[in-house]
Amino acid sequence: MALRNALGWLLPPRCVDDYLIRMDFSDGACFTAGLSKALGYGVIAGSSLVKVPQVVKILGSRSAAGLSILSLLLELLMYTTTFAYSLANSYPFSSYGEATFLALQTFIITWLAITWKSQPLGVAFSAVYVAGLAVTFSPVMPLSVLYTMQTLNVPIMLVSKILQIAANWRNGSTGQLSAITVCLFALGSTARIFTSLEETGDNLIILTFVLSTLCNYILMGQLFYYWNLTAPLAKQTPKK
Predict the structure, then answer these.
(1) Which of 121, 197, 236 is closest to 113 using CA atoms?
(2) Is residue 205 part of a domain?
(3) Number of folded domains in the chain?
(4) What DSSP string describes the chain?
(5) Rounded Cα gap, residues 193 and 212, in angstroms
(6) Has residue 78 been placed in a domain?
(7) pTM
(8) Residue 198, domain extent
(9) Residue 75 in domain
(10) pLDDT truncated to tens, each residue of the chain (240 aa)?
(11) Counting CB atoms within 10 angstroms of each CB, which of 13, 69, 167, 211 has the fewest?
């Protein structure tokens, strides 16, 4: 019974019967569905902590140097919109659940970055975001509005990523960006292309993940590029 319940999280009832009762493992559709669910929940589990290294790094240095606040704000808007849009369309939680955790962690990072510049601005930012959540998740919010917001996520995501890529290039380093965070994002967005194709078939979301994956790998390339440039210099710097 426990095994059946566990498989029920990953497979349609027909596939559970095929596996447990008929011992038939030849159905490719069942395998694909199970793989998609497993990847989806894996992405959600990883996303629950994916930005924690970033938060720890910022708190440890007491600096948000190298991070673009505008980029963070756009990223926060993107995750919040994806969560609201997917929830309104009744998509499986396994296809979008990470948006919840990413929005929360991005909010914390953005709040820290803004608050260290100005505490009143940090308070104002928090109030505006909470008010925005109340409106976005309101039962009277038209689905057409959420669709428009999700459509805008594509250019928003691109601008957000490009701003960070440009900031890295301008600064000649990746600042407080965490290598673990960026690498997990790249892998997670790659997996999301497959799970979105399998579970939602929503071309808008699929396009968003394809472009996001491309940008994430560019950021990952910058991390390794600038690390290779700065590591030798750090070794040559004499200790005082």
Answers:
(1) 121
(2) yes
(3) 1
(4) -HHHHHHHTTS-HHHHHHHHTS-----HHHHHHHHHHHHHHHHHHHHTTTTHHHHHHHHHHT--TT--HHHHHHHHHHHHHHHHHHHHTT--GGGTTHHHHHHHHHHHHHHHHHHTT-HHHHHHHHHHHHHHHHHHT-TTS-HHHHHHHHHHHHHHHHHHHHHHHHHHHHHTS-TT--HHHHHHHHHHHHHHHHHHHHHT--HHHHHHHHHHHHHHHHHHHHHHHHHHHHHHHHHHSPP-
(5) 10
(6) yes
(7) 0.75
(8) 50-229
(9) yes
(10) 566 566 665 666 667 666 666 666 666 777 788 888 888 888 898 888 888 888 888 888 877 777 788 888 988 998 999 999 999 999 989 889 989 999 999 999 999 989 888 889 999 999 999 999 999 999 889 999 999 999 998 898 888 888 888 888 888 887 767 788 788 889 989 999 999 998 888 999 999 899 999 999 999 999 888 877 655 544 555 554
(11) 13
191 occurs within a structural domain: yes
Q: What's the token pair of residue 135?
A: 């409106």
Which tokens in the block code for residue 115? 């608050």
Q: For residues 91 and 81, what is the distance between their CA atoms, to the nearest angstrom?
A: 14
What H or E segment, with its residue span, contains residue 11? none
Residue 4 corresponds to which tokens in the numbers above?
Answer: 């059946």
Which residue type occupies 117?
K
Please, are residues 157 and 52 in contact by the beta-carbon 8 Å criterion? Answer: no
